[in-house]
Design goal:
By secondary structure, this protein is an alpha+beta fold. It has helices spanning 15-18, 86-91, 106-115, and strands spanning 22-24, 30-40, 45-53, 62-67, 71-73, 80-82. A 6-stranded mixed β-sheet has the order 4-3-2-1-6-5. Residues 1-5 have low confidence and may be disordered.
């Protein structure tokens, strides 16, 4: 968050201020970087942060859809924290950058949220565009 276009205003961030942000755990160990966000356009909420872990320049990395509520964002410093051990994260549900999951699949959502100790939102039907 180095220039005026990449700032937080009263808890509101623009995507540019989050994309590429390094995510660490409570032990200050690097977990990965924010790659993307998944937005529930019907509810107007960010549902998942796509976290890129490992690899080099996006090659050989794994992607993790982490529930947005699992993150802590420091709006003053721009730090992003996820309270999980790196080894535990790497055991979690992940996907290849060429085969993204169906984020509206209730079973998939239940599995991901359960892994992070959270309750999944209820999706009423499939999201179609």
């Amino acid at each position: 968050m180095e220039n005026d276009s990449n700032k937080c205003y009263a808890g509101l961030f623009n995507f540019d201020s989050l994309e590429g942000t390094e995510v660490k755990n409570k032990k200050n160990e690097k977990l990965g970087k924010i790659e993307d966000l998944v937005i529930d356009y019907k509810e107007g909420k960010v549902r998942y942060v796509i976290l890129s872990v490992g690899g080099f320049l996006g090659i050989g990395d794994k992607l993790y859809a982490v529930p947005f509520a699992a993150f802590e964002l420091d709006e003053v410093v721009g730090d992003c924290t996820l309270d999980i051990e790196r080894a535990k994260l790497e055991e979690g549900p992940n996907f290849d950058r060429n085969e993204w999951p169906n984020f509206s699949d209730q079973n998939w959502a239940n599995n991901v949220h359960s892994f992070y100790g959270m309750q999944a939102p209820i999706f009423w039907g499939k999201i179609g565009m």
